Task: inverse folding
């Protein structure tokens, strides 16, 4: 009895449903009719943060390869240590903050790579670990992660390491030392060049005879990177190839690198000392201008703002090189300009189309 | 008449996938009048029309069913013969509900013999039905007569916003129209309705242009077409070959949002419209969609009010993409059925194009005078994302055709600082979507701008009401 009634009820419900559907001229509901709702636009350029980060990593490969060629296995270990420490620190920080894991956006990989490329090969690896953990834990995630950090994490970590581990951070392997394993450490050209600001007479002899007894590197060595320095900063040609790739991929615009490098060039023409091309090729100007100062998060948005930012970086870099207590001022210059970037943004608001 | 290349390029803009090949070769096809029509009283910008019919009424095609209600309003006419089944609030494509008249087009008044729905046959053969409004000779008619015709034909801008055309064609005293721009850019992806109109109805568009020119007191005419439509340019050149006066076809580079009126004014003549509340007429321009031009031509010469329009039904989830001439009030489900149904289950249904169209929740929503497209996108074409923090890359700022700092506006709105967004000129935003389109962090920047604009508008309205109340005391 109850079974029959149940069946009849089901039948009745089905009939009612059927009638309802007919009267509304509707097809039976199925899952496909739950449409996705969202505000326009419904199309996307198919760019992504991880793709941009990947592009920068790709652009850094030539200089990474050059660094490994000149400085050998210590460079490999430094890079591997920095990248893995950054990724692990990022994951741990996100876990501790109970936020989603963001290692997939590749920004931690990039920070690790950039930090390693800004360290001298042969630095004790535990120092690289401390520096990498600082870059991600303090300079990036403490501020809320990607997009929130006021300073370039890799450069903040480099500055931290330079102050904490001054000796190892200024001990340079000779390029291609692994071919001639005696006398492996040396001074960077920058240390010599600093003295030229005062002893301006050396300039003429050095530039006229680059391979003189002073053993100062020549233009070719500086261009390919056969000079002492950080792993990724030495090879101007490899850095230029990477920068061209980034420009071609429209990841960066020309404004910051050109303003930065031009300022360094013009400053050294005016101030004297080492020839202008040397100021550009030695030290961190190339990697700084093309890869560090162009970091989106910590640089201005508009073209005008980028020009001011690049000019500021170049000027501060040269002022530190000439008057500061360190031979190199590139990373400090960029860090100071990072702090000024929000102000520059405020000065250089775009003027809306049609605004007075 | 001559054809020139656009001498001015505006800043910003993006290049979305156009996907126009799906429907560009499909000739305009007239759809049979569906059994049910849902005719909204709010098919245009401004106050909804006042409904003149009630359930049970029988109406004739072209009969006035909604009276224009205020200065910025447009009348509504019945798109087909039928019986009013109900007058009720119905969901529109933009999400709001408005009064709509629901017709049963198969019902006949008592006494008339029941016959199969033959309205389609009648319509496709214009000889057999008498014109709804008396045809006018535009050369002999006065400016006022022509303006009145545009008004009583219920014509509004057919490009999307639906601004009442008679208001636009009648500049306030002291404002003179120097240039009439006919907007044939059709920069929205997928849409090919205007392209087909240019290919098939260039002569009607020409009549419309001549009428508008007469109403506006003889301005120079610029016809703006993107360079990826060479067939349309050729067809328009042919139709306009012997037109007198200062008429130019301006070939625009392919760049979204080339169809924005401010950018078209800049691209064709190089003039800049000041920020809102300034309007194009303040710098001497009237910009009309070319579909509107064709509608004016028909309304005057044939006496046909605006009862139907060409809608591009496209996307990868529809069986046969088509350019459909359908009565306004056709439900999306009927349009889809006319285009062979669904090829694969659509994940998203969009009224309009992919850049500025509205995603809708149900195919029971009906077309209006401004429905330029209906897109069915499969899950493969639907972009779903979770937004990340802004990385300050500046892509949105470079993409913004209004040169706004979109990233900063979005951050301000995200932290509920509408005042900051207002100071960043958010009211100048045209909601073209170029910022969200180019954002690698998938931030819904356009939506943030909309949110700010809506709350600013609400605040302005409240202030205005308060001031009015104070003045009344």
Result:
């Amino acid at each position: 009895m109850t079974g029959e009634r149940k069946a009849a009820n089901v039948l009745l419900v089905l009939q009612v449903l059927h009638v309802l559907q007919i009267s509304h001229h509707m097809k039976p509901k199925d899952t496909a009719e739950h449409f996705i709702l969202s505000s326009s636009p419904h199309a996307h350029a198919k760019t992504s943060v991880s793709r941009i980060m990947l592009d920068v990593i790709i652009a850094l490969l030539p200089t990474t390869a050059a660094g490994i060629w000149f400085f050998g296995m210590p460079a490999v270990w430094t890079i591997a240590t920095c990248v893995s420490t950054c990724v692990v620190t990022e994951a741990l920080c996100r876990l501790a903050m109970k936020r989603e894991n963001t290692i997939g956006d590749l920004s931690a990989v990039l920070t690790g790579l950039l930090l390693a490329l800004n360290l001298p090969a042969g630095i004790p690896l535990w120092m690289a670990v401390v520096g990498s953990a600082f870059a991600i834990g303090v300079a990036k995630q403490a501020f809320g992660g990607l997009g929130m950090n006021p300073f370039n994490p890799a450069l903040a970590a480099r500055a931290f390491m330079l102050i904490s581990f001054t000796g190892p951070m200024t001990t340079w392997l000779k390029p291609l030392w692994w071919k001639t394993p005696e006398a492996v450490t040396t001074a960077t050209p920058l240390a010599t060049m600093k003295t030229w600001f005062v002893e301006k007479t050396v300039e003429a002899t050095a530039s006229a005879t680059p391979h003189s007894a002073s053993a100062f590197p020549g233009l070719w060595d500086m261009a390919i990177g056969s000079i002492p320095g950080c792993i990724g900063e030495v090879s101007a040609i490899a850095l230029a190839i990477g920068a061209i790739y980034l420009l071609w991929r429209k990841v960066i615009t020309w404004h910051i690198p050109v303003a930065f490098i031009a300022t360094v060039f013009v400053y050294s023409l005016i101030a004297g000392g080492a020839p202008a091309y040397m100021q550009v090729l030695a030290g961190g100007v190339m990697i700084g201008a093309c890869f560090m100062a162009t970091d989106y998060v910590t640089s201005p948005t508009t073209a005008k703002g980028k020009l001011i930012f690049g000019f500021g970086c170049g000027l501060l870099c040269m002022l530190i090189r000439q008057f500061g207590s360190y031979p190199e001022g590139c990373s400090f210059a960029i860090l100071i300009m990072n702090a000024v970037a929000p102000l520059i943004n405020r000065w250089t608001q775009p003027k809306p189309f049609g605004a007075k | 008449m001559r054809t020139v290349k656009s001498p001015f390029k505006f800043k910003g803009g993006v290049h979305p996938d156009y996907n126009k090949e799906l429907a560009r070769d499909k000739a305009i096809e007239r759809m049979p009048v569906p059994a049910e029509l849902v005719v909204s009283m709010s098919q245009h910008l401004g106050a909804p029309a006042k409904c003149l019919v009630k359930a049970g009424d029988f109406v004739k095609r072209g009969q006035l069913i909604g009276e224009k209600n205020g200065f910025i309003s447009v009348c509504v006419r019945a798109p087909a013969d039928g019986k009013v089944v109900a007058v009720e609030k119905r969901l529109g494509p933009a999400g709001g509900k408005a009064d709509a008249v629901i017709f049963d087009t198969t019902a006949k008044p008592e006494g008339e013999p029941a016959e199969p729905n033959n309205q389609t046959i009648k319509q496709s053969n214009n000889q057999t039905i008498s014109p709804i409004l008396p045809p006018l000779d535009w050369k002999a008619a006065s400016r006022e007569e022509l303006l009145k015709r545009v008004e009583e034909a219920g014509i509004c801008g057919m490009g999307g916003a639906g601004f009442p055309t008679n208001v636009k064609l009648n500049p306030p005293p002291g404002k003179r129209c120097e240039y009439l721009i006919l907007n044939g850019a059709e920069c929205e992806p997928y849409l090919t309705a205007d392209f087909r109109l240019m290919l098939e109805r260039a002569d009607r568009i020409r009549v419309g242009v001549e009428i508008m020119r007469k109403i506006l007191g003889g301005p120079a005419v610029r016809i703006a077409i993107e360079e990826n439509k060479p067939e349309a340019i050729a067809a328009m050149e042919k139709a306009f070959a012997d037109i007198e006066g200062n008429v130019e076809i301006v070939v625009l580079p392919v760049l979204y949002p080339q169809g924005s009126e401010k950018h078209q004014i800049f691209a064709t003549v190089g003039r800049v419209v000041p920020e809102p509340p300034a309007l194009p007429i303040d710098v001497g321009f009237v910009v009309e969609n070319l579909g509107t031009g064709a509608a004016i031509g028909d309304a005057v010469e044939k006496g046909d009010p605006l009862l139907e329009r060409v809608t591009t039904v496209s996307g990868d989830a529809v069986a046969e993409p088509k350019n459909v001439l359908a009565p306004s009030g056709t439900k999306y489900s009927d349009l889809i059925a006319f285009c062979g149904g669904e090829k694969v289950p659509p994940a998203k249904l969009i009224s309009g194009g992919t850049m500025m169209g509205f995603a809708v929740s149900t195919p029971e929503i009906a077309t209006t005078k401004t429905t330029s497209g209906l897109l069915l996108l499969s899950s493969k074409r639907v972009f779903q994302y979770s937004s990340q923090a802004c990385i300050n890359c500046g892509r949105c700022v470079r993409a913004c055709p209004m040169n706004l700092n979109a990233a900063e506006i979005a951050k301000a709105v995200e932290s509920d600082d509408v005042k900051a967004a207002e100071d960043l000129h958010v009211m100048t935003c045209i909601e073209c979507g170029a910022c969200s389109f180019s954002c690698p962090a998938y931030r819904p920047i356009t939506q943030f701008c909309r949110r700010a604009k809506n709350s600013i508008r609400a605040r302005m309205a409240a202030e205005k009401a308060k001031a009015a109340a104070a003045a009344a005391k």
Confidence is low (pLDDT under 50) at residues 124-128 of chain B. Residues 35 and 77 of chain B are 17 Å apart (CA to CA). The longest strand of chain B covers residues 82-91.
